[in-house]
Structure formats: C-alpha cells, structure tokens
C-alpha cells in the first residue's frame, strides 16, 4: 500500500495532494449549524497515535460529539485524507445511520458489518460503508514516506429525515447525493499523521518482503 512507497518518491510527490476544498464537508456547503466533534485520543489538528494507523493496530479512533439540533434523524460519518496524492481525497471510513442521541463512537467500532448490523450499542442500526479500497470498515492511515504531513478529516453530519436511501455498504458518492440539502449540522475533527522514513513492520503496516 501507500506506506511502502520509497521515501524519495514520496518526497518527489509532496506537492501532489487532493486538497481540503474537495472534502465532503466543503462540497456540502456552509448553511448548517456546527457540531462539536472531538476525540479523547488526540486533539484537533494534532498527530494521531500510531495505534490508529497502518503502523500500529490499525483500529478506528474513539469519537465524541455534542447533541445535534432538533429534527436530526441520524448521523453520518465520513473520514477522508485531504493530502492523499490522488485527484480526490482518499476515503478512510463511512458510517451511515448513526443514532442521533448516541453522542459517541468507541475505539475500534468502525469494522466491516456485512448487512449493516453494527457490533456496538452506540452504532446499532448503522451501516459501515466502503472506503477507497472498496472495502467495508476503517482504512488505517498509511501516508507515503517522505510525503509530509497528511490531514485526516473526520466529518460528522446531522441529517434530517429527508435524506435519501443509500443501500447497504454505501460509497462516498451515494452518501453525498443522499444527504445533499439535508444537513442540519456538521462537525470537523482533523488528525494528522506522517512518515519521514520507511514504514516500520507492524501488525498492520507489514513491510514488503521483496
């Protein structure tokens, strides 16, 4: 994966980035209230601990948010890498249909759920969508070595009952189309991560053998 691109190549691509203007929250406009989205694991715009990345256990981080506005039917989470060396931000996670009153998503909760039956009480009834590798679940950050700091945007949307259906394991385009015009509030949490040297061998970030 991207974590094993040679550092010299990552440095050469340092100017190639998707851009924050292409994040979902930027595409959906600004005519909505603000949600307070935080994590007990890292501060806004601070470095994420390796355990949430391809250099560690590769589990999704815990998230906490305040009460959404009246009229919220459910919550939608989209996590994207604004600095991926790709034309569009890399999608690391999508969770559709989070309980509006849950207020939190525990560590490790974003996992493949098949038909959408979430494992934790906080995400019961939700559906984990497809990341950019076309798989359900959390795609651990794995920025190219030498590419510089990457910003991982955790974007939480409170949507009304008019949001369209997306089917099982939805992708980014289907989710954006479904919630466009139905966002009541949104929250943004940025976690950063970078590799200046070759990626270490770990449970998730395993070095190539050849």
From TrEMBL:
A matching Pfam family = PBP
Superkingdom to which the source organism belongs: Bacteria
What the entry lists under NCBIfam families is as follows:
YbhB/YbcL family Raf kinase inhibitor-like protein
Protein name according to UniProt: Phosphatidylethanolamine-binding protein
Organism, by scientific name, is: Sphingomonas aurantiaca
């Amino acid at each position: 994966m991207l974590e094993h691109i040679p550092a010299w190549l990552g440095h050469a691509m340092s100017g190639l980035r998707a851009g924050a203007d292409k994040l979902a929250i930027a595409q959906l406009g600004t005519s909505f209230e603000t949600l307070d989205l935080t994590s007990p694991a890292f501060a806004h715009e601070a470095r994420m601990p390796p355990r949430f990345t391809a250099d560690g256990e590769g589990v999704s981080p815990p998230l906490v948010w305040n009460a959404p506005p009246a009229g919220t039917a459910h919550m939608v989470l989209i996590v994207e890498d604004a600095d991926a060396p790709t034309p569009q931000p890399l999608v690391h996670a999508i969770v559709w249909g989070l309980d509006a009153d849950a207020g939190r998503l525990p560590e490790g909760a974003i996992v493949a759920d098949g038909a959408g039956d979430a494992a934790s009480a906080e995400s019961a009834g939700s559906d984990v969508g497809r990341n950019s590798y076309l798989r359900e679940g959390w795609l651990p950050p794995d920025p190219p070595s030498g590419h510089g700091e990457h910003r991982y945007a955790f974007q939480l949307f409170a949507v009304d009952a008019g949001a369209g259906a997306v089917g099982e394991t939805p992708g980014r385009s289907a989710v954006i189309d479904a919630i466009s015009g139905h966002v009541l509030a949104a929250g943004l949490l940025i976690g950063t991560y970078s590799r200046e040297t070759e990626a270490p061998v770990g449970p998730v970030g395993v070095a190539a053998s050849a």
